[in-house]
Prior knowledge:
single chain, alpha/beta, Nucleotidyltransferase, domain 5, 14 helices, 14 strands
Amino acid sequence: MKEFNVKVLVLNCGSSSIKYQLIAMPEGEVLAKGLAQRIGEPVGQLDHKSEKGKTTLNDPIPDHNAGLRKIVEILASGDPLQEVAEITAVGHRVVHGGEHFTDTVIIDNDVIAAIEAHVALAPLHNPPNLLGIQVARELLPGVPQVAVFDTAFHQSMPSHAFLYGLPYELYEKDGIRRYGFHGTSHKYVAQRAAALLGKPIEETNIITCHLGNGSSIAAVKGGHSVDTTMGLTPLEGLVMGTRCGDIDPAIIFHLARTKEMNIDQLDTLLNKKSGVQGLSNISNDMRVLEDMAIEGDEVANRTLDVYCYRIRKYIGAYMAALGPVDAVVFTAGVGENSPFIRERVCKGLEHLGIAIEAELNKVRGKEQDVSQADATTRVLVVPTNEEMAIAIDTYRLTH
């Protein structure tokens, strides 16, 4: 077995789950990874994978403290570590850093206080992120902990891109503005795209399309985000798995009056019952809708027309914002693995220099240029790796 001196534990704590990877740096070798889920339910589940194989434990995981303890215990049981002290740093995904954080930071009490101050902007995400940080600090005292923010990459947006057409005092006093999300992914795939293009990222204009159950697009100029589709929250922008994306805000008032829906019901409708799930009334699983569309199902085709049109429209808008674009990048679950969606999105963009080669486009889950030879704007498939990006940043700050 290889010996690695630096082992970074990457944690992504959700409301009822903890996703983790143990990565040897700077080699970037994944030593182990897994998922603790159903936290707080009568029976929890921990799926762990390393070079020794796969292990699944079905035991109660009453809270995040117990979940992290189980994760550290299995890692230090010889799979792959001999003792907890081999973990040299911990990198945490934190969803919302507001304007306070423009880059990755080493966690101290002031950082924790600032993350707590942004809970109102991300009430579903920041509390479990904070809990993961607190528990990890208790379990691994003296080990440097690092926070990597989904919003940090987008803090380079100019004010004309992040301000809403609302009273300015709402921005000044309450922080109401576009923040954007998926920043770790957009940054990582933009850097990989520049490498594939053989150009310094400072000399590139790239549009990154992170298409999963949650989806967003970013306009990246010289390696810096200058616009993105998600806003104050992850609800704005593209039509997603269960989120509506851009709508006329007056729809909310209309539904409140005519359907007597309250705030919580409207929140559930827009975040959990809309998007392709709501449009199709079939599924939020793109694979299901693709199969049905290929078979000629009218509802599935109508739904995917809306989904792909919104992506195509934003690509056009960001080409206008950036000027000449070097590449459009597809990433995340749908973007990496769906030749069907990539082809459907790009169809009709030939006049903008975007043209996919059908045979090359059959690729799934690996880096590849899928453009026609004479296309002036390249179309790239670049698998995202947010865990690796977090490990890279954590290593950079701690070694």
